[in-house]
Structures are given as structure tokens and as C-alpha cells.
Amino acid sequence: MSFIAKPKIAHPSLPKNALGLTRRDYEGAMSTLCAGCGHDSVTAAITEAVWELSLRPEQLAKLSGIGCSSKTTAYFVSGGHGFNSVHGRMPSIATGAIAANKDLYYIGVSGDGDTLSIGFGQFAHAIRRNINMLYMIENNGVYGLTKGQFSASADIGSKAKRGEENVQPPIDPVVAALTLGATFVARSFSGDKEQLIPLIQAGLKHKGFALIDVLSPCVTFNDHEGSTKSYSFVRDHYDEVVHTDFVAPAQEITAQYAAGEAMPVTMHDGSRILLRKLDPTYDPTRRGKAYNYLRDKLAQGEYVTGLIYIDEKSPEFHEVNGTTQVPINQLPYEVLSPGSLGLGKILSRYK
Amino acid sequence: MEPTDTRNPDYFHRVVDCQWACPAHTDVPEYIRLIAQGKFSEAYLVNRESNVFPGILGRVCDRPCEPACRRGRVEAEPVAICRLKRVAADHRDDITEFLPRAPSNKNGKRIACIGAGPASLTVANDLMPLGYRITMFEKWGTPGGLMRTNIPSFRLPAKVLEEEIGYIVNMGVDLRLGTEVTSLKKLLASGEFDAVFVGSGAPKGKDLDLPGRRASLRATEHIHIGIDWLESVAFDHIKSIGRRVLIIGVGNTAMDCCRSSLRLGATEVKVMARKPRAFFKASEWELDDAEEENVEIVVNHAPKAFVVENEILVGMLFDKMEYDLDGRGRIIAERMIGETFLPCDDVILAIGQENAFPWIENDVGIEFDKWHVPKVDKVTFQSTLPNVFFGGDAAFGPKNIIWAVEHGHQAAVSIHKYCQGLPVAERLPPLLNLSSRKMGIHEWAYKNDYNPVERRLMPHVDLRERFKKINIEVELGFTAEQAAAEVQRCLNCDVQTVFEAKLCIECDACIDICPVDCLTIAANGPEDELRTRLKAPALNISQPLFVSGPLKHTARVMVKDEDVCVHCGLCAERCPTAAWDMQKSKIKIPYASDETTPCLSPQSRKTA
Questions:
Q1: A11 with B517: Cβ contact below 8 A
Q2: What confidence score (pLDDT) does residue A248 get?
Q3: How many CB atoms lie under 10 A from the CB of residue B449?
Q4: Smallest CA–CA separation between B569 and chain A, in Å?
Q5: Measuring CA to CA, how many Å separate B320 from each of B272, B298, B332, B340?
Q6: Which of A271, A319, B75, B238 is the most exposed place for a label (fewest CB within 10 A)?
Q7: Which CATH superfamily, name and number, covers B101-203+355-420?
Q8: What mean pLDDT value characterizes chain A?
Q9: pLDDT at position A134, please?
Q10: Which residues of B touch A3 (CB under 8 A)?
Q11: Tens of pLDDT, residues A271-324
């Protein structure tokens, strides 16, 4: 953490988005995480992504649970709505909020502990319901807030700072999400904003539950030799299978791609994502293939990154449940309140 | 791009924009920090080491540092560096015991300094402590040169001048006042001196030979040459001027002339400029000060003739001009669109000055160029006659006081080397030391927080008050509160961001935190192209890019755009591996005293 606040002044040639705002206008409070924490880079990537999308800050809802990762939501878009929930219960809060107001963009930021241990059940049901949110896991393989114990995502053989080896098999959130039926599954790395920023944008625009598992090294407890989640290990075992470019609705696709290499996917709002396959045999729309590919690479100790699976066709939570089109807070009192007569009718149903 | 060679002292020196821009390389951030700590005497002495006349320059310096100041690029206004110098001078204690002293045992070498202006005084300041005997010839009855004769006392009080000149002269300079050197040949032939330093300034004001210039003796008496007129005012030879005055020219001399006129009885003063405001030579702040006193500045008027009726000057004729400018503001065409007459009682010509050496004989061995400017080496200040050195306005034509001081320092080095029989061109290089400011995990031995306070305005004497006497100093100096606020505007550019590529783990922490987006990790490329790929495009090409060697994980490079770095230290604070560190740079500019001094006996060296 720092003792001084980030000065408000900016570079004179700092670009502006369609709303006339610079990325500085999308910042949040000063981070109190350790110097060099990957989570701060995730914060910067989210800031940049939301700025580029020209979202108004108040269009954004930020949700989190407990842990180092869950502090992240305080550090970007201070003009957005925020909810810091009980440990592992962020998906429940998100489900409720999304049901009540479908007009906002929802970002949930969680960690490997918050998602894969205490909140695993909640995580699974958020995927099952295909709630319309971007769910980011800042995955560092340790419990940083409690001094670096192995988390559920620690790999077998990964060494803790004091030298002991992890012997329990990890839960891989990407594999888990694929098997649970998630409609947008991606993995990225806090140190690769070129990949991460378009993924965040695509995830925000995706119709349904978008998961991005971000390898985000813990610089204090898990960035040493022998760790499989350190900056250097991730860089050495980094296998980008599909690169994603985000293309805003009015924007033209200008870059040239060889036939079969680029695959455009149109999102529900007319924006597109352009998937550039780095392994030509890979198909990010085939769940089974994606699963097999991922398992093979994991066995080789490689982190497959990029947009691993996407399905824009499956119905999301609102469609399935017929939730209100108009956010509840904008509905007139007469519509919201059933009146004493209506209440009587409702109550009679439970008699 | 090749990795930046930060071992070259110029790299970090250049980051300290003010110090780099200052001809004498005054350590500005250091003295501003000392002022912030209330150490006024120390701040004064830091100044004095390089610029010799802090009290004088704190009032009348041309301040090349301020347009260069990084704060001016980060916000609109630079730090009031010049006036903070005055704060140090105004509030210092008695510093005489810290001043250099001349040894009682001399080294046997005698130097003649011609003129007692800033250049000669600096030569004496540097050489007296080394045991030289210095004789200084001054044609006027008081020392100071142009600082005395051309700068009005309402800007520079005589007391300030006398005090700071005294510090030098009191070391035992043989100051011969009222002694004009009329023949260099005779001076050299006397054999009295081992070397001669010519610091006689550029004493000749330019005339304007237009119709009517010499129409009658009576009219001619009302047409004055600016610097001569200021000189006469300074020595009380002129005590009044007509009610309506036209000043021709719009440089800093013109500003002094118009403001002096107002104090000698003029009520209607117009400064006549041939071109639009963007082309004025006067400093912006001097124009502001003149306009505050209701001087009217008239643009696009080219003088055409002096109008004399019945032998009396009644006014001047001007051509009204019109200019076409190109996209970059340069004049591409000009034309006259008419003529206008402006009545006046006096005209002051302030259109420039030039060198004049009627006392240097043609056959003495000093070569002059076709403009009658002596051929002087740009580094050593040696003329074509090896024992004669030039400095100040006498060397390369009119500049300013701070340049004269720097010339004096360099000439002193040359004279010292020359007198030792060493080659004058072989000089010590500038050196640069770096030392970390890290105190704790997030604590630095400097105030790193950015203070958004705006530039303080110099309080002035009330308009009605200031015209009562010519020597009422207009600027009152900063109040304690103003000084305390202004010092916090300094960005501490000398606390450098120093990068160690081999420690970097490419976590992006520095890039994410930098408030001014001046850091990027990117694939290397040619500079023009790299500048466009940075997190905030580096469009100010006058400011360098720092480029590291390849980083160990990805072989990309760390790039820093120095342009608007506010030296807040957040990059170093957020760096988990201390690849970034905040290190204070101290630039060591060699003076004559840093050269070896074999001509001193061991005993006298101790006293020195």
C-alpha cells in the first residue's frame, strides 16, 4: 500500500472515450494490496476495458466476497454500484441484483478461495442459472490474506514459500465451469493485458454467465521458485489457444486474417468478438473438444489461455425466468404493490 | 531503440529541466527543498555556488528555468523558481563566514578584469580564493556594470547590488573605479598581468536613422538611446521626461524604459511594436508588469519618421502593418496598410544593443569577425590572443546576467589552466552522483506527494505608491505563506526514477499506478514508432524516452516518457523487487577550484 493518494493530474495526450472521459475517470480508491500484486493489474485491465467500452460508471455493478481478490472492486470505477458480500456468497447477491435490474453490467470479482472453497456451491449455481454477469477469479493458488496457505487451486507439486509441497489435486475453475455448462469460459493472466482487456469486454457483453479465470500471482506468498503460479512460471507455461479481439458495434474489422484463422462471433448488442485461433485445430464452440484439449494441456503442466469456450445461443437467466424488463426500482408503486386485495389473493394461495 | 545510457551524466541532468536550462546549472530543486525546510542560508549558499548573485538574480534573472519547468507542462504555470531564489536571499542570516576567502599568500599570478559587471565579478569570485591577484577596471564610479546602469532601482535596489558585489570585492579585489581602459595594447604592454579578462559588456545602443532623426538639436535632445538613457537615470543625470513618451522596441530594455518614464513624470507611455505580440522579445512577466502600470503596448506599427515642427519634436509617423501567418505562427507575408501619426514629447529607442571595442587595437592580435565581434572559443572563452579571455555580453553579444555568470565560471577555469601552463581545452567533465531516497517500505527522504496548489502571485506595491520615487521596489517578495505554498509546487525532478532491468518481474504494478501514464512495457522499436505505442503517446519530442535493456521474462523493454513524470515515486513504491528506485541526483559542475592547483604552495593551499 502507499501513503499518498494517486495524484489527480494526467498525461496531456491521454486519450478520451466516446463520453469524453479518460481512463483516469474510471479509477477507484487507492489499492491497499501488496506492491506488485497481480490483482492490481486486473484492476487496471478492468478500468481500461470499461473505459474503452464507454460505459457510464453508474451502469456498472461491482460485486465481491471476501479475500484479497474481493478488495479489487473498491479499486476501479468509483462511480459504479458496489456490494461486498459475505465470504463466498457473492453469486447469491449477484443473482438477486440481476433479477431486479437487468439494465446494469455486472462484474463479480472473486478469488480461488472465495470461489473454489467456501463459495463453490454458489459458483456452480450461478453457472447453472446462466446469470448475466462477468465473473472473474483472481487465481493465485494461495490464501494470501491468511499468510499463504495452499488454496484449492494449488497444483500438485507446487511449493509454498517455506518449501512444503502441495499434495492435493487442484480444482481447475475452467474445467469445472465447462462441465457445469458455462456459456463463456476464458483463462488469462494478470501480466497480459493485451489478452485480458478484450476478454473482459467480451465477457461484459456476453449474454449469460462469463467466467474469466485470471492467473494473478501473489507476489508476497507465491512468487518464488517452485511455485506454479509465479510470474515467471506462468510466463513459461503459457499457451494462448484463441486470441480475442473485441470489436465495438460501429467499428470495422480492419485487420487481415488468413482464411480459417479468424472467427467472428456477434454478441447480442451487435458488437463482435473476433477469435484468432493460434492452434488451427482448436474449436472454441465445441464444449467436449475444449474439455479434452484443456485436460491434455493441464496434464502437460500448460496453462491454456484465451477464450476457451463460447456459446451465445443458450438462454440466460432472464429469458428462462421471465424477469421484469423494467428494473424494479423504476417500476411505479402501483405496479410493484399488489394492494390489500391482491395481497389477500396471494396469501390465500399459501393457505 | 538502444537502451538509454544513464551513465552519461547528461541523461539525469536533462531530467532536471530547470537545472539543465539554467546556463549556470543552478541546483534548483535542492535549494527549493532547503527553503521548504526553512534553511534559507543554506539555500542561498547552494544558489551562490553556481549563480553567484542570488539576491540580484532572484529579482531580475531572465529565468530560462521557468519556461523549462516540468510543472508548466503538467499544469499551466511553472514553479516561481526565480522569486523563490529571492526568498532565500531575503531571509538568509549573515552568511559571510561561509563565503570563499582569498588566501593571504598569493600564487603570484595577476589577472586584469575589464569592466566590473557580472562576468568579471564571477571571474574574481572563482579566482581570488585560488590566490590570484585581480585588478578590476570600471569606467563608472560604482561596480555592477549593466546590473547597475540598465536595471532600474525599482526592480533591483542598490542595497542588494552592493551587498552581493561586496562579497566578492571584499576578498581583496583591486577595484579601480572611474578608470576606463582606453588601450588594450598599453594594458598588455605594461606586463603587469598574466591574463586579461574582457567583461566590458555590449555597451552600444542601436540608433534608428529615420527622417527627422537629426532635424534640430532641440529635437534630438528628446530622442534617447534606451540603454544610455537608463544609465543616465541610474546616475541621476536625468531626472525628468516629457508627459507623452513613445518607446520604440519591445524587448526587456523597452520595458525598463517605459516603467522608468512613468516614474520621471510621464503619464502617457506607449510601447511601439512592429510585429504582433507573439514576436515580442520581452519576457511575458515583464510585459505583464508594464501593462499593470497602464503602459499601452501598440502592435503592428513600424516607425517611419520623427516629426519635428519649429525645431520641436512633436511626434512620430508609423506605417501600420499587416502580417500573414502560416499554421505554425510564422510570418509569411507583410504589407503596409496605411500610415498613422502619434504625438509625443520624447522618444526612447530600445531596439537592441551591440558590442563596441574602440579600445582594442586592430594589431593587438585579437581577431574580429565581420560584425566586429571578437572570435572567442565557445567552451574556453579564449580569444585568438591566448592570454586574453572574453565573457558576458562582450563575448557573443547581448545575452543576460545568468549567461554572463556562466561565462565567468568557464573563463575562470580557462584562466586558471592558462596560468598553470596547462591546455585550456582539456577540462574536467561534469559528474553525477545518485543516492537512494528510500527510508522505509513506503517512505522516502523527500516529500513525494503531489501538491495541486497553484502558482502564487507576487505581491506588488500599490500603484499610487510606487510612482512617488524611482527607487521604490515594486515587488514585495513572497510572504511566508506564499513561499511555503510555492515550494510545494516543485516536483523534485532531481529525485530520479532509476530502473534496474534485471530485477523487473514485469508485474505491471508501476505501469498501473503511474498517475501520468508515462511508463509502458512494450516490444522495442524505432523511436518514432515506439512513441506512438506508449500508454499515453509521447508527443513532446523535446523530452527523451528512457528505454531499458530487454527484460528477463519476455525480452520486452521498459519505456519511460520523461515529459510529465511528477516524481511522485509511486512506481518505486509499488515495485515489489525495487527494480524502480527513487535516487537523488547531484550534478557536479567543475569550477576553477576543482582543477588541480599546483601553483599554490602547500602552505597557502591550507589557507585557501
A1: yes
A2: 81
A3: 14
A4: 10
A5: 11, 10, 17, 7
A6: A319
A7: FAD/NAD(P)-binding domain (3.50.50.60)
A8: 92
A9: 98
A10: 442-443
A11: 888 888 888 888 899 999 999 999 998 888 889 999 999 999 999 999 999 999
